[in-house]
Amino acid sequence: MDKKMHDKGLEVRKAVLGEAYVNNALKNVDDFNRPFQEMLNEYCWGTVWGREELPRKTRSMLNIAMIAILNRQHEFRAHLKGALTNGVTREEIREILMQVAIYGGMPAAVDSFRIAREVFSEIDGKA
């Protein structure tokens, strides 16, 4: 493991998803999933998210679309909050999900719009 890249990734991961979310994920680390968490921090968050060629906002927009199409609702919820942290507006999220509907299918968009509304309600204190 590249410790420097791992630490950079952990920093980026916390900045995007929030320290509480990441700490919660890390408190469940054990001998079985530790190598996966290390890989996640080093490669996903350090090697890729840590690159300068795309701004975090753009990476978040891409993630929203891809995760919505993959129908990974838990990850979608987390990355939706991260996207808002990275400056993606609700209007931009709506447009991304409209694109998802056309290229990824209506069922993926229906679920994603529902989750987005739930997240917005939570953030607005209406949940």
UniProtKB/TrEMBL annotation:
Gene3D superfamilies: AhpD-like (1.20.1290.10). Residues 36-118 form the Carboxymuconolactone decarboxylase-like domain. InterPro entries: 4CMD/NDH-1_regulator (IPR052512), AhpD-like (IPR029032), CMD-like (IPR003779). Pfam families: CMD. It comes from the Bacteria. Coiled coil: none annotated. One of its GO terms (molecular function) is peroxiredoxin activity. PANTHER family: 4-CARBOXYMUCONOLACTONE DECARBOXYLASE FAMILY PROTEIN (PTHR33570), CARBOXYMUCONOLACTONE DECARBOXYLASE-LIKE DOMAIN-CONTAINING PROTEIN (PTHR33570:SF2). This is 4-carboxymuconolactone decarboxylase.
